[in-house]
Here is the input.
Amino acid sequence: TSITSAKIQVNGVHLHYQQTGEGSHAVLLLPGMLGSGQTDFGPQLKSMNKQLFTIVAWDPRGYGQSIPPSRDFPPDFFERDAKDAVDLMQALKFKKFSLLGWSDGGITALIAAAKYPTLIHKLVVWGANASVTQEDVRIYNGIRDVSKWSEKVKKPLEEMYGHKYFAKTCEAWVDGISRFAERSDGNICQQLLPDIKCPTFIIHGEKDPLVPRVHAEYIHKHIKGSR
Here is the structure.
């Protein structure tokens, strides 16, 4: 089946999304920092089972084709993304849906599953963290300058954003996420994890260069029954 690409107004912004499949199980794919549905989930949009699933991949506000507005990082940007994501799916008339979140999209998915438990069917997160340590801040500062990124990772984002927006937004992200380290326990959403009641599957790469494994273990420990 084909992939449709469209925009819909949600919370005062025009959010871009792609949709494919006609299955009864609706799934929202949530991209990571600077990512879009297409850059982060091209293979899933193409290859996930379209008889079982209806798949939606979104571009959070300020990312991908959901510009304008420009992306900013107020203290509640993850909560804002979580509300946008849930409201997008409701605007598309999905009563209940699952979340697959990668990296920042994983954090957004954790918050959405905790805050909107009646709407979320199942949850899969990978490369996610519920807090920010001083060590994490050191790692983030290592990617602040996008000119040092590998060509493979940098190229699709430069093509999507142009160099200036890409570079500026990456710096703003590093500043925005580093602010959590100033809170007690570096908390992003630790207190919400026990509120997640849906079946949850946590995936983590042993060699993840940005998110140490201890984060995945913390999330697993604090979401009851997660795997």
Summary: Residues 3-130+188-222 form a domain with the Rossmann fold fold (CATH 3.40.50.1820). Residues 163-178 form the longest helix (16 residues). The chain has one domain: 3-130+188-222. The mean pLDDT is 97.
